[in-house]
Amino acid sequence: METKLVQILLLVLVVLSIGLVSWLFKEKNDEAVFKKLKLFPRWFKLVGIVVVICAITLPWIFKSLLVDGSNYIGVIYVNFGLFLICFSRDKVEDEMSNLIRLKSFYRSFGAGFVGFFFITYLENSVSDDFSQLSADTLLAVILGFYLVSYYVTKSKIRSAE
Fold first, then answer.
1. Staple 149 to which of 3, 65, 104, 135, CB 3.0 to 4.6 Å?
2. Rounded to two decimals, what is the model's pTM?
3. 88 secondary structure, DSSP code
């Protein structure tokens, strides 16, 4: 029963991912491509927030989704929700927000890897066995740091105006 539910949840995630990627790469007007980044519509942020909240809470409500007491499926869906939030448009999309996005991605990849190695160090300093954290953790750190960096930088620039 549990493996069937996990397989169904992963299949839903794969189908949604394929649909979203194909939507991003469909043919668009050449002028629109050069003026704007290809981003999801604004309402995808709300969908991403709902996915993140459900991914965190549902496995603890339905204990059958937990594997050895850990929320592995939830981590995958949290990353999917963060992806939707990161790649959705804001209310005002202009060149400044594109520049902020670019700088935030640079910062997030650098800080994400440093944070990942720092978390791995902390994890291994507590226990005697060496264990490396998963790629899901790395992706969550990078996406989370991107969101923080983007919105902090954007709020600083907007408040300075």
1. 104
2. 0.71
3. B
The rounded distance, in Å, linking the Cα atoms of 130 and 54 is 32
d(CA 4, CA 1): 5
Query: What DSSP string describes 13-55?
Result: HHHHHHHHHHHHTS---HHHHHHS---B-THHHHHHHHHHHHH
Q: pLDDT digit of tens for each residue in the chain (161 aa)? A: 566 776 777 777 777 777 776 766 666 554 554 456 678 888 999 999 999 998 888 877 777 666 666 667 788 888 999 999 998 988 887 788 888 888 888 888 888 778 777 777 777 777 666 566 678 888 888 899 899 999 999 888 888 87
